[in-house]
DNA sequence: TTTTATTATGCAATCGGTTGCATTGGTTTT
DNA sequence: AAAACCAATGCAACCGATTGCATAATAAAA
């Protein structure tokens, strides 16, 4: 195998010291411009590549950011990751990505791995059932910056990057009410998680503003999965008094529910109107097209990594920023429109 | 900040040498069992964590596998990555993931980054427009194992992990023919890529076996995106003689096409039958449910990383294995069924 | 008891950059 | 001409784990 070129090779060929070569390659101001040019040219010529391990070892930095998400293969998360990767790549940072698969146990294992990998910072969207903060303490103790995004850990004192979920829930529900629907069921996920509890708050507020009585039996907690959508449809079919609208906290679940409802001879929006959440591409390709709340997933990923890198570089203090809220918005399509029955 | 514990700390506290500590922690056979227990206990007690940078520097290994994919946020790719992450995580390897965004230029930049990050191995699914192998040469020269998956680089001598795309294309088309459809349009992606050219071969074979004349104008090359699906629908609408079936190389595109056709008063499968590819969840939640070819994305990701790690550990020789083919299968749903028009 | 194995541990060099603190040679100031 | 200063470079000690080779300690064989 071809021998690796080091700064020592460059140094000896140019009759310089390794120190000078190192400084030149890092564009240190104390080095003469001409010398820099010389060294860079020689480095290029020899096919030199810096050894990150030697460098990291000495600098005690890893240039690596850890990311823990519930799942990688959901539209939202894969898009968040795509945004993260883009920024990290541009800034010369590496990402170590792992998935908790919605289990706190796995999430704890992942944080341990991240800790041992000595990530410079950690970005987390917590699992459904996480209720302990314990496994994040080592990071705080070692002053390793920790940022939550999407599903945050409330009361943690860590910076958060979120959308205004309450506003999203409010707008979705308000829209349904404005369309004339009154008996609205809310399909959501584990209410431990801010994203779902906040949307529920928005739902409740919209109801209350319009003088509609909130009934807790109209809030159905599910896994928001494809299967959950099917079950919801069957449950609705069996209901003696059917709702006139659904507000579902995930497009994929909403869409699966709509499909199953159709199989059960309940049509959307004629019999039941539906609003989803996320603006997953799937929302545009079904019939009727799904009204939803746009979720700025890519921007969230970009923002998370940008904030982290800025903080690591000392550009701004994360402690000061507590929460960054990104813009989300209602997208009205066919699934929620009141049609006059001719 | 809390000071980091090193093997030297453990060594001095136990009156041993760092060498012994290092060996003990790595379970070296020459170390006495009792000593190992002692050292492990002390390591635990002090909260020792190994410094991967020192270790990698010395061992000249990175324990890191690079992954380059066209996009992260497609169902297939995010699922492949999920599978990769699972195995890599279990085996103590890190993944560096980057996306080429379907551009050869970006792919080249990514390979450079991977090369400079000194990944131990590289897994690649190539971009739409990649036609040069040049940027992979440095890896071969340095004998860094390179494995292609899904979209492979043909005639590269590198191991490949794929499904039998020709078989998939054949089965999809054959199924349509068996349903009585004869004028089948094939919607596909850039034919430079094996996945598309092979499926086309299967399509052609199925036609020829049934004595149906292959017409090149029945093969439409598109981006297979959501937008592409819409365009296809409009193009079909404008056709004087309409096809009776479509074989689309991506579910998302197929589904988007179906939705648009519906808007244009062409119903599926009554007017036109459709078969997709991938078994994307979206295929189950639309109406009619989409017939498709199941793509074992998670298994592919797992297999890719497993093969790579096995090779890196010297368990088996990659050069011997040239191609690993995973099982795919036709899933018949409603979108392709011939309905007798009552 | 001396010699030969066997087992367990230590020594010290090494991996390749980085960086605080000299040092050198030249220029400017007094 | 001596003193003060500055710009550019070098010296050498790190960072923390690994590993070939030597050595010590103990057991087994002669």
Automatic annotation (TrEMBL), chains A, B:
PROSITE patterns: HTH_LACI_2 (PS50932). Residues 5-59 form the HTH lacI-type domain. SMART domains: HTH_LACI (SM00354). Signal peptide: none annotated. SUPFAM superfamilies: lambda repressor-like DNA-binding domains, Periplasmic binding protein-like I. PANTHER family: HTH-TYPE TRANSCRIPTIONAL REGULATOR GALS, LACI-RELATED TRANSCRIPTIONAL REPRESSOR. This is LacI family DNA-binding transcriptional regulator. It comes from Arcicella gelida.
